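Researcher: Good morning. I'm working through a list of sequences from a screen, and I'd like to move beyond sequence-only analysis. For each chain I'm collecting a predicted structure so we can compare shapes side by side. This is the next one on the list. No need for commentary yet; just the structure.
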Amino acid sequence: MKRTTSLLAVSLTLLLVFALSSCDKNKNANGTTENPIDTTFVGQHGQLSVNGVSLVDQHGKTLILNGVSFGWHNWWAKFYNAEAVATLHSDWKANIVRAAIGVEPEGAYLTNPELAMQCLTNVVDAAIANDMYVIVDWHSHHIFQKEAQAFFTQVAEKYKDKPNVIYEIFNEPWDNMPWADVKAYSIELIKTIRAIDPKNVILVGNPHWDQDVHVAADDPITGFDNIMYTLHFYAATHKQDLRDRADYALSKGLPIFVSECAGMEASGDGPVNMEEWNAWTEWMTAHNLSWAAWSVSSKTETCSMIVADDQPGATPAPVSNWKENDLTGWGKLVRETLRTINAK
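Model: Good morning. Structure tokens for this chain:
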């Protein structure tokens, strides 16, 4: 009986030792506790920053983000929902989305800020929940400095601790707007954001609808960290001459982020120029540039990725969980491109 009791005591002791060692499975050889590896995309890459001309992750490694821009929120609010973001993440394999918060048109931020903030919150919160980065885009063509400062103050206060968020402070400065004006506006917006959020990346626009990166390269904004400059292209209109401008800007040390791009004409219509689209995607890959394709919308035009429903009698387009026959030719191309490059 004593022997049985002894054996039982030994067994219980071994079980206790095993249990305690299991509780300490995150300790290394030195006896210090290690955190388990975070395998999520944002968990792995974390806080983004800018090093030279490169977007880098929390480990200092170059990171290329590829994804999709939503259309103007004031016209396509129905797509600004959590399920749409989840579909872009799980099915399209996008690792970034862009919330294009319209400013000037009827029903946009200036006349309906409540709708704008609700659409923005829907997309940003869903992007965070789906392990994605997200661009908060002030989708304006003209300067509304006080309104922009109020908008980004509200956004920064809400999301300053989220590494997922990237601020785009001026979508596309209109045509011949001087860089000096855009630069002065941008400096004030950067100051506004940095007073609240000292880290997250800020994207700065430039004249001629974000095609004058060469001008910004000759007179860049100084005194701030984690600033990049946006380049927008529509491949059937913008070709080698714009790539040459961008090459010049990069050679001058200007970091570039392609926050809006597409394969058709700058009007958003006309056929996709596959030769130029391929030239652009190869160029962006060669330069480690991130991009977001335009756009999640259902208008009767080539750049809309969802089948059109804006004509009388048309069946409403699904707002998420799109099947192949819900997508336009452009939508199918972008989805396939993202599934290919982000699966690597």
